[in-house]
Write a structure and sequence with these properties.
With 279 residues, this protein is an alpha/beta fold. The protein folds into two domains: 229 residues, Rossmann fold (3-Layer(aba) Sandwich); 35 residues, no CATH class. Helices cover 39% and strands 10% of the residues.
Length: 279
């Protein structure tokens, strides 16, 4: 006799199984990541991290996770081979089409999990348009920005600022926890930012003049030949990565539970209001 196991990934379900779950008004998770360099020591497919975290969130919360969109917007990484970047218009269209695939079937509890911070402005623009046109709010969580300062301090103490940055934390620790066999820590190099126009670069979008940012568009290799945009990967560890993942899964799962009790067509709704109306 076969034992039925509750599925959490949409890709694993038959359409009949998914149709049966619709009566529960499930929360659908939409993971978005990127294929880009992460310094010489880490895999370029950082969408794998978003995919793994999203799967854990689905299992912890009872949500259903859709297949991961592995490409994002990041023009400043184009100068290093191996990345795949979508144009802003393409990315926005993919977001809208993916969400529409659920909205058109009356599924209105949708949460995007964004594993590539540079996608955020395009998410905001696209989701605002969806709300204007369809009347439904679709939240998104910037995963790597959702690690609180208290946890950074617990993990890195006074070195927290030095640890954080593209090529450093949090992704190096999370990679060491989730995919240690793919890491090449023997290739780790210091993250040293170069200058542009004789001024210190503050990343790919600014230089520092008299201690203040002046916005200048730079490519990653112009900041650092290895695409290291800040952060010391030598401060990373698998143990730190586990604590980060545990926090992210708990945080996202709690938001899913809160969201489940809301009417996504009304910003005045809340689980408390919904429960009171039902009583």
């Amino acid at each position: 006799m076969m034992v039925s196991t509750r599925k959490h990934a949409l890709k694993d379900m038959t359409f009949a199984e998914f149709r049966e779950r619709l009566s529960e008004k499930p929360v659908i998770l939409l993971p978005f990541g990127s294929q880009e360099e992460q310094g010489p020591h880490a895999p370029m497919g950082d969408f794998m991290l978003t995919e793994a975290v999203a799967a854990k969130v689905a299992e912890a919360s009872g949500a259903i996770v859709a297949p991961t969109i592995p490409f994002g917007w990041a023009d400043f990484f184009k100068t290093i081979p191996g990345g795949i970047q979508l144009r802003p218009s393409t990315f926005s269209a993919v977001v809208e089409d993916t969400i529409s695939a659920f909205l058109e079937h009356g599924i209105e509890h949708i949460l995007a999990l964004n594993g590539h911070t540079s996608n955020a402005p395009l998410f905001d623009q696209t989701l605002r348009r969806i709300r204007t046109e369809r009347g439904i709010s679709v939240p998104f969580i910037n995963l790597w920005q959702s690690i609180p300062e208290a946890l950074w301090k617990e993990l890195h103490g006074t070195q927290a600022a030095a640890a954080r940055g593209h090529g450093g934390e949090p992704l190096t620790s999370i990679y060491l926890h989730l995919f240690p066999d793919l890491m090449r820590m023997d290739l780790v190099k210091p993250s040293v930012r170069g200058k542009a126009f004789g001024l210190p670069s503050g990343g790919v979008n600014n230089v520092q003049f008299e201690g203040m940012p002046v916005h200048v568009q730079l490519d990653c290799h112009e900041v650092n030949a290895d695409g290291m945009l800040g952060g010391d990967p030598l401060l990373a560890s698998a143990e730190k990565g586990k604590k980060m993942v545990d926090h992210l899964v708990g945080f996202c799962a709690r938001f899913v539970e809160h969201m489940r009790g809301c009417d996504m067509r009304s910003i005045s709704s809340s689980p408390q209001r919904q429960a009171k109306a039902a009583s």
